[in-house]
Amino acid sequence: MTSERAASLLLPKGVRDVPLSLLDKTVLATLGMVFFQGACARPEPHSLNRAALPEPVLPAFPSASLKSSAPAWMATLPVVKPSVEVGRSAWATLVQAGGELAEVGLVRVEVVGASAVTVVDKTGQRLEDVPGALVHPLGDTRNLREGMLVLFYTWTTPGWIGRVARTENGADQQIQYDLAGVTTETPVDHAEPLRRGIGPLAFVAFTKSGLSSMGQVVALDARDAWLLTGSGHVEKHSRVSLDSLAQPAGELTVGQPVRAYRWATGFEQGAVVRVVEPGLRYEVAVAKNPRKLSYFIGDLVPL
In CATH, which of 2.60.40, 3.10.260, 1.10.720, 2.30.30 is domain 257-302? Predict the structure, then answer.
């Protein structure tokens, strides 16, 4: 049987003898079949035997929840009695869930134990058994003035070095800080004078892989200090190996010798060659780099 004959048989009797092309008859035949199927009686939904329909098979996942283990350095922390009060805000070094990285931030203290505390972090999460060695009282927030270097905190910026741009209403501060090489200004949740010496939350210099790097003291005892590095890791170093940093108390001048810090190179000795932003950013020439690079005031230590 030819294709044309097969298509014609599907057409109504009065249309079969009309001279149409094979394509036209095929189209009409297809439309006829659609009409025929639509006219047939369909079973009501309740007449279906749903018990005979197979249930979809879903993939099975482990039901046990994953538990993250604490970083190894936490097991080396000294056991100390917390020096914070219930209901007050405090500095705390918290480890990110499931990882090794940590950050310094503000928390609210809920419970104080013999050697650990329970705190509420910035997301409202309740964290238990935070070692007392990692929790420290806030510093004095009074008497901050324009141009002063401070340790500050915002929701998006963990405890870091900034400079007071101005104060509002005698209490609210606008802080300038370095963000990827650009001076940025922001209101802050807390600011206090930059801590000096080798003590909790002070910034210090330490040696690693032949470089003099910068870290923040997050815990310490009579012999050792635990430092938060620029990469977000915590390392243990002996206190005698650390150097305290005397960050500038005022503006720097052209020709002034300084130690300039960059994360990739550590501290390098150089001299100020240009004032980019007075009191904030300076161009420094260092001995090992032919390029003159811009540094934020918090990364410079006068010699």
Answer: 2.30.30
